[in-house]
Amino acid sequence: MNKDTTYTVPVTQDKARDRLDRFLAGAVPALSRSRLKGLIESGRVTRDGAAVTEAAAKVKAGEVYAVFVPAAAPAAPRPQAIPLNVVYEDDDLIVIDKSPGLVVHPAAGHPDGTLVNALLAHCGSSLSGIGGGTRPGIVHRLDKDTSGLMVAAKNDTAHRHLAAQLEERKLERRYKALVWGRPRPGQGKVEGLIGRSPANRKKMAVVKKGGKPSLTRYRVLAAVGAAASLVECRLATGRTHQIRVHMASLGHPVVGDPLYGGGTKRRLKNAPETVRLKISNFNHQALHAFLIGFTHPSSGVIMQLKSELPSNFNELVDNLEKI
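RE: above sequence
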């Protein structure tokens, strides 16, 4: 959107008792539910002139809501000529294969040198502004040290389409992970609420209350030596650190994970010293987004793109095979 927009939405009798975010998503199809939730929480949805900030609030027949949508802000980060591995690109979107260590967008401690800075240099002014001042074009994220495929939007229409697919769980994301041990059963799912760990605010955890629903489906692809397994994980939701938290909750943390791993020395006690050193020096989670699938926002074509495992991931596999 190139200018501020306000939607006026009355509540009819058949919509009474709906959640506010769900009701507005049905009434204003131009906005995704996640986008509306952000507008609600930031005080941009009002009823009788007063802000309503609870997305789960129940609406009543006869109420009238005003949804204020500010014009997309210009991207604040500066373009930086950082090399990108572009897998696919057209006028609507770009798919990149992110290297481990690359932060997705500017944040505290990482003001520049991010994927956003690189995209601004590569795409120029065509990058979608819907993500906000520090996140232009960003539809979904990968952790800094997770490698693999990401899609970014180059215009607002494409961004809305892709964000809706993400919200409706139609944007396919598959990962390969090296995890410690042998998950049993060899195929299953992990679900529950993910929120801040009460024991360590820097970590996420599966919690009993206060978190957000999450679902990961996994299957063991192969045993890797005596100590690890190669696992495919499919995201149904996209919570912070979701796969890492879920696999750790099963007792099979991702190899190399500095936050949720632990016990590496114990797991490698019988390994040859040279192998032990090489595995211990792998200093980030062995997690790679190897497949992404979505419906193209303009053509309607179903796209599915894949990425090969990074060389250091394959080297880690080779060393784990020696245990």
